[in-house]
Amino acid sequence: CLEAPNDPACLNDMWAFHRHVYEWGFLVVLIGLWLAWFTWVGGPRRVKDRSMAGRDRWRITPRKAWAWSEHRPVWQQPVMGAALALILLLSAVYMVRNDPAALDARATAEMCAFSELVSQRCADAQNTWDDAIAGAWSVASLGLLSLVASAFVFERPLPDGRWPSMLDDEERKALEDAAKEEE
């Protein structure tokens, strides 16, 4: 390799190194930046403080009451999560079934596959169709996540040990009045 530095056999190792850096270097940089941010915001200290403070009791239970509650803001209503999920799922279906650019790309890609054509136009059509499907899956995933998040209740016990979801309206009102008096 010293005598013929441009010999392809000599360049293979350098090509493999650059390919490895390209594939894994971004991940290393991303993790490094996350670690720097985590340290900068005091993450290690916070994690240690929380672990030394003892066990914090949280409860995750399936939602039993889907009715509208006057005790929560609109954005915390469980039906809003289900409505958002429905909107996102319908948007995902629309992205694939009614988008003219995606449908044209699909028709072109199917014609290219049927005719066994290989061209830049066919590749662009396939990429456009793949992007439409990927976008629809992303939106549908967000919809499913919204539905799952609204189907569960995440709660911490009150200072007296009772769970907020077990309170009736009178107890909840008395608790809110007591909190207002303390302010």
Commentary on this structure:
The chain has 183 residues and is mainly α. It has 2 domains: 1-56, no CATH class; 58-182, no CATH class. The chain is 68% helix and 4% strand. It contains 6 helices and 2 strands. It has helices at residues 8-40, 43-52, 78-97, 100-115, 120-150, 169-182, and strands spanning 59-62, 152-155. A two-stranded antiparallel ribbon has the order 1-2. Helix 3 (78-97) runs antiparallel to helix 5. The longest helix is centred in the N-terminal third of the chain and has 33 residues, at 8-40. The mean pLDDT is 83.
The total strand number stands at 2
Give the helix proportion (percent range). Answer: 55-70%
Number of helices: 6
Rounded mean pLDDT score:
83
Strand % is under 5%
Largest sheet geometry: 2 strands, antiparallel
Structural class: mainly alpha
Shape: flat
Write down the domain tally: 2
Radius of gyration: 28 Å
Distance between the termini: 79 Å
Strand order of the largest sheet: 1-2
The stretches of 5 or more residues where confidence is low (pLDDT under 50) are none
How are helices and strands ordered from N to C?
A: HHEHHHEH
